[in-house]
Amino acid sequence: MKRLLLILLLLLAVAPAAHADRVRVRLFSGNKINSLNVSFDLGTYNLFADGDQLLEAMVGEGRSVHIRPDDGRLHVSVNEDDYGTYTTLHLMATDTACILCLNPEGCKQRTYEGNLEVSLLKNGTLQLVNDVEFETYIAGVVQSEIYGTQSDIFRIQAIISRTWALRNMKKHAAEGYNFCDYVHCQAYQNRCIRPDIMIGAIQSTGETLVDADGHLIETPFHSNSGGQTANSEDVWKAALPYLRSVQDTFSFRMRQSDWVKTISLDRWLSYFRKTHKINVDDSANRSELLHFTQESRKVRLLGVPLTRIRSDFQLKSTFFSVSVDSVTRSVVLHGHGFGHGVGLSQEGTIRMVGLGYSYDSILRHYYTGAVIHLDPTANPAYVENYAAQLARIIEEDKNKKTQVRSKKDDWLGRLFRLRDREEREEVYIEEEQNNEQDWQYEW
Question: 47-63: b or e for each residue (b if 16 or more CB lie within 10 Å)?
């Protein structure tokens, strides 16, 4: 799978960037990192301390960098060599095709492209920031945020993730980076390694969503709407014209379509009595609390925001109805969907793509009145050409049952040779490739 990184990097290198070149993303933002071990899957890195002090050059496969806090500074060693303590550390990639393997103490390993910056937080734990190509980040987000197999699914997710990122580039500016890797921003749990995701990402090159005035819109999304999306003001404060509630039967009968949660009757009634000062002994109030229904989305239950109830009881959504199990004296919530319900339903999108709806019509379905804007610097010829070449080569690779899969696979070399020849405005004749030593690459 390592070779797939190189495919994405290659495609992104020849496709024009969409208003941003690189971003800084805090990794493992939901964890307290007490030590970090870095190994290398591909390429080499230069290790710098405190800005431009070179500690070791060309650190690569077979080497390991260990970093831990030490009396308010960062202690670093490479294999058995101790380099002392510093304020900041940087691992800088020496080439485009470089992969870092990050193994923080107590966390599952992740791999990333680009550069890594390590510093200390005020609580004495490590802060890890990935400096990476913007479009490489977007592909990693798509892989982390949605499932499926069809490229249009990933094209749609790439468009809304790109739009969100470009609109929110300064979200964490005060902390010295652009985004975190958690749902506070967008999930970014690994580098992208799947070719179908790469194809969808490259097909979306330069595409964003804008309103009638040409401004980037907010593009919230959720797992499943349960059959109806929510108005933005029903969940947050602002009523946005492109975030309107729409019927969404495409979200039915999917993984996250329905859920059930059982809560003790005493706990349910006590919550409304103590937390929200509601007289639960009043027959009308009690009936509403125990027989609340939502054939279409509502906003409140006896004046209590459903978003508050969802948060306090950790429910999958606000789209639920209430009944009572008289045998167990329990309240049973029968719910629909997963997430806040505003904007795009990911599982609805997956269903619509499977039914043959076009990617642009799906986006219009979930974002009322929004328009797809294509960056005028994006070259459709590049997008179509390299997406097609990637799809062709992947299909050929599938048919090579005995082919050894490694980072030196020939089809990766074929794509590099194709790119290089086209840049030199030459005609690539595949049959002649094996006779030309100048196209033999080692990774």
Answer: bbbeeeeebbeebeeeb
> Token pair for residue 326?
């008289």
pLDDT in tens, 414-434: 554 555 555 555 444 444 444
**Total residues found in the chain within this entry:** 443
Decide: 236 and 352 in contact? Cβ < 8 Å: no
Q: Contact, 12 vs 378, CB < 8 A?
A: no
CB-CB neighbours of 213 under 10 Å = 5
Q: Determine which helix (DSSP H) or strand (DSSP E) holds 439, and give its type and residue range.
A: none
DSSP-H helix ranges across 314-437: 346-354, 359-366, 380-398, 410-423
Q: Quick one: DSSP state of residue 369?
A: T
Q: Is 366:229 a contact under the CB 8 Å cutoff?
A: yes
Task: Report how far residue 209's alpha carbon sits from residue 357's, in angstroms, rounded to the nearest whole number.
Answer: 18
Q: Where are the domains of the chain?
A: 15-199, 258-336, 380-439
Q: β-pairing, 330-336 with 258-264?
A: antiparallel
The whole-angstrom distance between residue 93's C-alpha and the CA centroid of its chain comes to 23
Q: In the prediction, which pLDDT does 436 show?
A: 37
E-only strand ranges, 105-206: 110-113, 115-120, 126-133, 179-180
pTM of this prediction?
0.85
Q: Three-state SS for 163?
A: helix
Residue 89 main-chain phi, psi, to 5 deg: -135, 145
Produce one character per residue of 413-438: b if its CB has 16 or more CB atoms within 10 Å, e if not: bbbbbbbeebeeeeeeeeeebeeeee
CA distance 156 to 271: 41
Asked if the model's pLDDT at residue 441 lies above 90, the reply is: no
- Spatial contact of 59 and 44, defined as CB atoms under 8 Å apart: yes
| Residue 306, SS3 per DSSP | helix
Q: How far is the C-alpha of 279 from the C-alpha of 194, rounded, in Å?
A: 55
